[in-house]
Amino acid sequence: MLHSNNKKLIALVVIILVGIGFIFLARDYKKTFGPVASKEGNIIVKMPFDGQDVGNPLTIKGEGRVFESVFQYRIKDSDGNIVFQDHAMTNAPDVGQFGPFELTVSYPKPKTRTGTVEVFAYSAKDGAEIEMVRIQVRFSGK
Asked: Domain 36-139 belongs to what topology?
């Protein structure tokens, strides 16, 4: 009987550990493949996903609520070198409202295999970078 109880206890522990593992995987899956918002919540990047292989051109998709609907974006290699940068506008229906954006960006070949896509705004108050969203990517070279 003691032997049977030990098997049940071991089975229960295994089931609990597997369940905990699925919870962590689900959390990481959402974090990796879900939209990423700035700390302040006014820029949301839906594409690319964190850790995604990206081609050339690269599509950046999301929504934002930023001053005069203007936001900045840049692509950096893993050494921190800026590969490409520019600005764009959301398609907000009115001032103070979220508007979608979708960009197709061609960029020079990075010197490293990995890097980041950054989407942010400049503060109207002092020009500081605000609403920063950083997405880690792998450059596929295609």
From this structure: Immunoglobulin-like (2.60.40)
Give domain limits for the chain: 1-33, 36-139
Distance CA 75, CA 48 (A): 12
Q: Which of 68, 134, 129 is nearest to 99 (CA)?
A: 68
| Beta bridge partners of residue 76, listed in sequence order | 82, 116
**From the centroid of its chain, how far is CA 140?**
17
- Cα three-residue angle 96-118-110, rounded to 5 degrees: 150
Q: Count other Cβ atoms within 10 Å, centred on residue 121.
A: 24
Tens of pLDDT, residue by residue, the chain (142 residues):
556 677 777 777 778 777 676 665 554 444 456 899 999 999 999 999 999 999 999 999 999 999 999 999 999 999 999 999 999 999 999 988 999 999 999 999 999 999 999 999 999 999 999 999 999 999 996 6
